[in-house]
Amino acid sequence: MGCVIMPMLVLMASCDAMARQGGYFYVGLDYSPTFVNIKNFSIGESNGGTKKIYPYLREGDIVKLEADRFDWNRPDPRISFNNNTFVAMGGSAGYGMGNTRVEVEIGYECFKKRGIRDSGKDEADKVYLLATELAYDVVTYQTDKLAAALAKIPGKDIVRFAKAVEIFHPNIEKKICVTKKQSSGSKYGKYASITDNSDGGGGHHSRKGEVAVCGAVATHDSGGVMTAQTFKDFVSATLLGDGSKNWPTSTAIVDDSKKEKGKRGNPEPVTNDNAEAVARDLVNELTPEEKTIVAGLLAKTIEGAEVVEIKSISTTSFIVSVCSDITSEDFVAVPYACLGLGGNMIEVVEGQSTFKPAYKLKVGLSYQLSQKVNAFADVFYHRVLGNGEYSDLPVRHLIRDRTPEGRSKNAATANFSIKYTGAELGIQLRF
After folding, report:
1. Cβ-proximal residues to 252 (8 Å cutoff; 6+ apart), any chain
2. 3-state secondary structure of 367
3. Which residues, if any, are the signal sequence (predicted)?
4. CB-CB neighbours of 242 under 10 Å
5. d(Cα 91, Cα 377) in Å, to the nearest integer?
6. Rounded distance, CA 368 to CA 375, Å?
7. Is 252 within 8 Å of 187 (Cβ atoms)?
8. Phi and psi of 390, rounded to 5°?
9. Alpha-carbon distance 194 to 88, whole Å?
């Protein structure tokens, strides 16, 4: 704000001295259609956790913040803004003496978001979901990245996700962590808190077919179960219903039967084997429609997701300018040029404004209509300075968000550069 306040103080302090030298005061009102250039617009979580943003799908006049109401097949749609040609008014006040004027100018511009569909009036066009790692990896088939991300998640969060899948989408639950049988066998792996799945021999002879790895195979028909077990069984028996064991890596009874010729022995745990197995099933076993459902559940139960509404970028500018009039008896209209410094209060999301320094250049013509009334017309260039970051933008959350406290953030950050050009047509009253 200093770049606005200091010039205003200088102006106020000098007005009295200049008035004694035969100067004049003036006020002006103008209409200023504007053409905006907003570059590299992006928005996401303040900590950089947002992987992609997804637009809302059209659904009448009501916007429902359900995860499946976002278009997961259209990541990072281009967000652009319309020019401002209607609600474009400005006002100014200043002091002139001779060929020099000092003026304070206030302007308002509103650049409405351009619709991504046919109708720019559709409210759904203004709503976006800020998705993070897990949801993004599922819908983009990135198994390895999904496995690595799942391995960092506490087991209790996996349990919460699994229960949501079981309750709301049991058909999907039946496709995850499905235990298997050998090609010549009849028994499926049975989930347990520790793998006890030797095919006999050596120091261990259980042949129980008990597994602690998602989707594992029973190695012998002496154990196991007749019907394949699924995600809910894995969670209740292997993760103990609370995620306290076997996530992200399984455990197994150690034996040396695998050393015997022709014996596989009890399978040994592999680092992050359960996280990798769940990731494979989420990516490989589900239809595209089911993946979008799972992405939404991951957002609502584990990692969180924010919803932001971008209706427009509006800005109120405060500029202090020094203007020079080029007077001549041969001129019917008086040319002038102005250089101004100040700032803009910029609002990206309703309820939060950010101040940025700015400068403005303009050239134009002034024509005297009467002794105290002038008409003027000019063109201008206005540029907002600073780092282009607009933080603490208010967000909303998905319906039935059950993520742990702190996962879903309460603010977002936008980044972009903004400059605009236009014309001013107005009247100036001198006294």
Report:
1. 194, 195, 196, 197, 212, 266, 267, 268, 269
2. strand
3. 1-19
4. 11
5. 14
6. 6
7. no
8. -125, 105
9. 70
> Could you give the dihedral angle defined by the CA atoms of residues 223, 228, 234 and 240, in that order, rounded to the nearest 10 degrees?
-50
Closest alpha carbon to 345 in 183, 178, 25, 107: 107
273 vs 295: CA distance, rounded Å: 21
Residue 50 DSSP symbol: -
Q: Nearest Cα to 358, choosing from 338, 373, 374, 343?
A: 343
Crossing angle (nearest 10°) for helices 288-298 and 273-284: 130
The pLDDT score that the predictor gives to residue 116 is: 66
What is the value of pTM for the model shown? 0.82
Among 314, 231, 338, 313, which Cα is nearest to 274's? 231
Question: Integer distance in angstroms from the first to the last C-alpha of the chain?
Answer: 29
Task: List the beta strands (DSSP E) in 113-241.
Answer: 127-131, 190-191, 210-211
Helices (H) and strands (E) in the chain, counts: 8, 16
For residue 321, what is the enclosing H or E element? Answer: strand 312-325
CA atoms within 13 A on the CB side of 226: 0
CB burial string 34-46: b at 16+ within 10 A, e below: bebebeebebbbe
Q: Which residues contact 233 (CB under 8 A, 6 or more apart)?
A: 177, 179, 191
One digit per residue, the tens of pLDDT, for the chain of length 431 reads 444 444 444 444 444 444 445 689 999 999 999 999 999 999 999 888 899 999 998 766 678 888 888 999 889 999 999 999 887 889 999 999 999 999 999 999 999 998 765 444 555 678 999 999 999 999 999 999 999 999 999 999 999 999 999 999 999 999 999 999 987 788 999 999 999 887 655 455 566 889 999 999 988 777 789 999 999 999 999 999 999 999 999 999 876 554 444 455 677 899 999 999 999 999 999 999 999 999 999 999 999 889 999 999 999 999 999 999 998 877 889 999 999 999 999 999 988 999 999 999 999 999 999 999 999 999 999 999 989 999 999 999 998 888 888 788 889 999 999 999 999 999 999 99
In the numeric block, the tokens 């999301």 are attached to 349
Question: CA-based angle 259:263:264, to the nearest 5?
Answer: 90
Residue with tokens 């120091």: 203
